[in-house]
UniProtKB/TrEMBL annotation:
Protein name: THIF-type NAD/FAD binding fold domain-containing protein
MF terms in GO: tRNA threonylcarbamoyladenosine dehydratase; ubiquitin-like modifier activating enzyme activity
Biological source species: Triparma laevis f. longispina
Annotated GO biological process: cyclic threonylcarbamoyladenosine biosynthetic process
UniProt superkingdom: Eukaryota
Amino acid sequence: MSQPIHYDNISRLHGSIQNLQASHVIVIGLGGVGSWVVESLARTAIGSITLIDLDDICSSNLNRQIWLNNDIGKFKCDVLKERCMNIDESIKVNTILDFINDNNLDDILTPLLTSKTIIIDTIDSSTTKASLISYTVTHKIPIITCGSAGGLTDPSKIVSGDLTKVEDDRLLFWTRKNLRKSFNFPKGPKQGEKNTHRVKKWNINAVYSTQRLIEKPEAAVITNGGFRKCDSQLGTVSYCTSVIGMVAAGKAVDIIVDGEFRGPNVNRIDENV
């Protein structure tokens, strides 16, 4: 029988062990970033994790994701569930073999929500990311959204901040654009116009890199959802995917320890607020 994980030398976590064990984290997307998110959460006394993905593991995933050769061909959800249980058998792991999209968001997520739920989004589709974030606004659920790892080579450039402040990440740029276009999020200045007012933060945690890519952004694969190719034109390395995942997991733990389960703070432009 495995031994329980202890945090005697980390007073902040040790004093919040009950909060951690009562929390529920939903991880959507289990690829280069999401697999490392789950690994970190499983080692941090999180009580309940829901894994959502329909993808299986292929050989070209091994350079940047957490899998081993004998995992090839298996569903990512199944492998990560077993891994979590081997790390800490007290964790409750729920798996959902599906891709999140506009049509199934409510049916899949709403039954899972508790007062201590956090969503970590590692989806690589800007349109699906926007739909998911809009959903969290409606349901007042805290969300941490992760940017693209494609083309990154410098893990020291990975930061976290409000989604309104992201500049160099193209995936999050298009996500924010879709939120304003399709979900009535507050608009920024028009292209070419100077921003003369202070943008109000949306309270949407984003993890992204400030590294400016040498490759053209058109080389990045930013899909509209569903299955994608195992290999893209824009390479990815494990020491960047893993850092994005670890930072996202750390932000989730911060929310849990602080007890601040606040959803996004967005007044849509069609709301009379």
